[in-house]
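Supplementary Methods, section 5.1.

A reviewer requested that the exact input to the structure prediction be made available. We therefore reproduce it here, unchanged from the version used in the analyses.
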Amino acid sequence: MGLIEPPELLLRRHPLTVDDYHRMAQAGVLGPEARVELIEGEIIDMATIGTRHAATVKRLLHLLRASVDAATVVSVQDPLRLGTHSEPQPDLMLLAPRADFYADAHPTAQDVLLLIEVSDTTSRYDREIKLPLYARHGVCEVWIVDLDEGVLRTYRNPRGKSNAKRYTEVVETATPGVLTPQALPSLRIDASKLLP
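The structure derived from this sequence is encoded token-by-token as follows.
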């Protein structure tokens, strides 16, 4: 009688690289209107953007534009390259300034000064899949605006070994006030009206 292989050996996966993903888009395999992102080598359908989600992103964009200096790049639902196999599209990012506004390449974790995800139907996915990905790649600070639970969660200081990095400072509040991103100590964002 032969040896039985463990189940994980029966399913061999071929994770896509970011370059594969881009080639698929260029070849038309992924249509121009496809709402997908690449997470750990797999193409993931993104949730449809509802009105609460869209309004919150607009409100955040208004707050950020009124607060940041002209040098900081505000990025809305744009790709973020995280290593060889991931390119998520966070709702908002504040990026370090670059003269080309990232025309030559998408930003990486080292370019991110603050990353914000707005969650209504995606709270668990954002917390359990995307947040650990951001920590592993060293995104310094992430805010998750959870509309269903009515809370703002802030995550800072990713620490640990490369594949086991976690955010060491986590704060959850239903009544956010004026917030200051760690990488932008002179910035004051009044988040008091962010949550319904």
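The longest strand covers residues 151-159. These observations are discussed further in the main text.
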